[in-house]
Amino acid sequence: MHEYDPASFSLDPNNPEDAELIGFFVAELPDRMCTLRTAVDSEDFDSIRRLAHQLKGAAPGYGFPTIGDAAASLEHCLKENSVNALDQIQSELDTLISLCESYTKGS
What we know:
The longest helix is centred in the first third of the chain and has 26 residues, at 16-41. The chain has a single domain, classed as Four Helix Bundle (Hemerythrin (Met), subunit A) (Up-down Bundle), CATH 1.20.120.160. The chain is elongated. Helix 1 runs antiparallel to helix 4 (86-104) and helix 3 (65-81) runs antiparallel to helix 4. It has 4 helices and no strands. The mean pLDDT is 82. By secondary structure, the protein is an all-alpha fold.
């Protein structure tokens, strides 16, 4: 399981209200990954790109820059390769999902 990176928070994890927001972000990760998998199964690349973009923007502010980086990498891959590089897109997607799941294990 990955640890939070307090140095990257735009929120203060020691503030109870901010800690609640961080917890809410982590609690939403399984639903986001389910939505992402559904988009993959239906080959809805626009939704995959949108979801990756959302995570790219949101995750670092909650203290999860590695999720943001993985989402940015997936988004970039989708923009640059469209559906012509499915293996690379799948690899980026697997990395993002695995990373998100690592934060929610045991929570």
